[in-house]
Amino acid sequence: MGKPMTYAEKFRATDREAVLTLALAIAIAAFFWGAVALFGDRPQDLLWGLPLWFSVSCLGGYLLSVAGVAILTRFLMRDFDLDSPDAPADLRQFEGDHHGR
Amino acid sequence: MGDSIFILLPIIFFLVILLGFGLISHSHLGRRGEATTEYFLAGRGLRGIVLAMTLVATYGSVSSFVSGPGVAWQMGFGWVVFAAPQIITGFLILGVVGKRLALLSRSTSSLTIIDIINARYQSKPLAGTLGLLLLVFFTAMIVGQFIGGAQIFAAITGYDYKAGLLLFAVVTVVYTTGGFRTVAVTDLICAVLMLVGMFALGAVIINDGGGIGAIVERLAATDPGKGTGALMTPNAGGALPYPLLLSAWLLVGFGTIGLPQSLVRCMSYRSTSDLHTAMVVATVVCGALMIGMTMLGVLSRAVVPELPANGTDAVIPTLVVAHMHPILAGITIIGPLAATMSTVSSLLLSASATIVRDLALTFSTGPTTTLANSLRWSVVTTSLLGAAAILLAMFPQDIVVWVNMFAFGGLETAFLWPIVLGLFWPRMNAQGALLCIFLGIGCYLATMILGIKLGTCHNIVVGLSMGLLGSVAGSLLGDRPTETVRRVFFPHRC
What we know:
The structure holds 2 protein chains of 2 kinds.
Chain A: H1 7-39, E1 46-47, E2 50-51, H2 52-76
Chain B: H1 2-28, H2 35-41, H3 48-59, H4 62-65, H5 67-75, H6 78-83, H7 86-107, H8 113-121, H9 124-157, H10 161-176, H11 180-209, H12 211-220, H13 242-251, H14 260-263, H15 272-299, H16 315-323, H17 326-363, H18 371-394, H19 398-424, H20 430-450, H21 460-477, H22 483-489
């Protein structure tokens, strides 16, 4: 795992992960509305016994969501210790609650 | 009435198990590490699957089980488009603010979302305003959940509304006083039972409807009042305008990052790998439940062809009563009851945390109470607030039902920008957050009450965009956050 990350490095990593998560959510929304726009005006077409637009947008969107999150968490998000001994202590509100191990 | 004994058996069994859990963990309280950290955050030790399930069970409410599917019965597949943004709800909040809140919860020793607001903005007026809003909205939501749960209990078992309410509401309040860990574990049980209820409903609908093919054929030939085949279209034959369906992505999609009952869960888990597991599990379960229940509402029209006398809310109870064996009906009704109880327990615990820690600290001038005292106070506060909510549900007041209607969007409007911009935009300050709340909530409530519409959009669009405007304007006009705040909240941008 190498050297433990500093408090600042963890924040840089979470900036990046927040943007990636948001991008994934926007991509899913785009896929969803793309499918509705593409197939929505032909409600009589079926796929898996349900309206084609519905199967692709709602069920396909769901599967895409699960696959996207699996990839995001497996390959793009980093593991680090949530306790940061190097974090500034200035804003600690309740000394008794300190959680360091 | 003889049948209703069979319906009650599984429900009683379920309630006894939850109660047992609550009493056992209650007796363990205080033995495990820091008492208040344990009571309000489970000692920041939740594992991935529990985190995922408590998030989904808190989010999934009685309306996901009853009102939503009822509207879907009426609108057809178009209503699933409205519910569909919830395929991103499971991972969005965890991925965007999950790790940041976990880091900051530790480095500022925060136990609640208001603690985080306090540390970030250093403003008592702001923390007090958000605390009060949270308390008002949560109380109304708790009462709304109790009413919804008791109604479906009465509709399905045939027993009295008040008897049912007392039965499950008292159990909920009692186990909630066992603290966050009990709430999270019972949420896990509830989430599983919500899935069981959904699968039981699905089996009955598909079986009695003669299979998906026959059901869809019947739906295609039905005229819901917007022309034959309207049930098959994405916009319900025009009954659901596209701007409304698009705003749903804000209301039940992106905006859910601002729900404080979900945010507090981001501070309660053990490690980053637990968070990663939770993101996947929550996405699988949340999407399955929300899309699944709404879709079952659509399909149920083939089995319940006429609108029940009591409106769309009665579709699912009618289905359960008319098409299920009493024992199976009893198991199925646990689904919506579990959805009610898991939502209430989380709201109740957060609301009491707000009273004990946030409002007391904000408005007190003397020395703050010691931690040992505050645990006893927390348990007492949870019980009193729970009792008050039960009374309000016994004798429903219009004002509470009315506030409940705005609560979901109101919480998003009040919390989304102060949290998201507070965590990611160093320039954001207390003036921005206050202006966001007043402009956002003000415009949201005003447009809701006066019936003003921005085209056919949902009013959440007004609330969130005015809130964003207020945040940016207030922050640019006001003071820069102090150096200390920047060092803790933006160590990488100092």
